[in-house]
Amino acid sequence: xxxxxxxxxxxxxxxxxxxxxxxxxxxxxxxxxxxxxxxxxxxxxxxxxxxxxxxxxxxxxxxxxxxxxxxxxxxxxxxxxxxxxxxxxxxxxxxxxxxxxxxxxxxxxxxxxxxxxxxxxxxxxxxxxxxxxxxxxxxxxxxxxxxxxxxxxxxxxxxxxxxxxxxxxxxxxxxxxxxxxxxxxxxxxxxxxxxxxxxxxxxxxxxxxxxxxxxxxxxxxxxxxxxxxxxxxxxxx
Length: 237
Known about the structure:
This protein is an alpha+beta fold.
C-alpha cells in the first residue's frame, strides 16, 4: 500500500463523489478515467473549484486482468510526474484545501473563493485599487522563485493556484460580464476586457503576496496586496 492524495471535484465520476472517510473508492471497471493519486498536496492538479482533498492509501487490483491494465497505464507515467494511477484506494482522512497552495494556502483559498464569486462591480473596484507597481512586484517574486532550488515538476510557488485562479476569473467574466467582457486580440484569441483583466491581475498579485510571502521583499507585499485590502480587507492571521 502506498499513501497519497485524492482530489475530488463536482465533475468527478459518481464513485469518487461518493467518497467518505473510512470508506473505499473503487473503479467499477478497469478503464479510464483512472483514480489519480498524487504524491503530495502541492502536486495536485486542480482544474475546478471547489472540491475536496483526501489522504488515501492505494490498494492492489483484485484480478489478473485489472493488474495488467493498471500496469500498462502506470508504465506510461514519467518519473517525477508526481502522481500514480490506482483502481482502489482506502480513504484515511479529509484534509484542508490550503495544503495544495503552499505556505500561505489559507489565504490562497480565500482569493480563489473571491475569484469564483467575482462580479462586475467588484472587478471595477479591484481594477481601480490596483497599485501601479503591483505587477512588477509579482514578477520579481516569480523570478526569485525561479532562481531557487525546487522539486522537479512544481509549477509555481502556490501549486496549481495561479492556473485555477485564471480559470475562475474567466468563468466569472463569462457568467456575469456578458459579451463585453471579452475582446479578440491580434492573434484572433479571446482575452478578458476591462475591468476583468485588471481584476485578475489584482487577485493574482494578492495570491502571490499572501501565498508566498517569503518571496516578497521590502514593501512589495503591501504593493501587491493593496487592491485586495481595499476591496476585501486584511487577510486574517
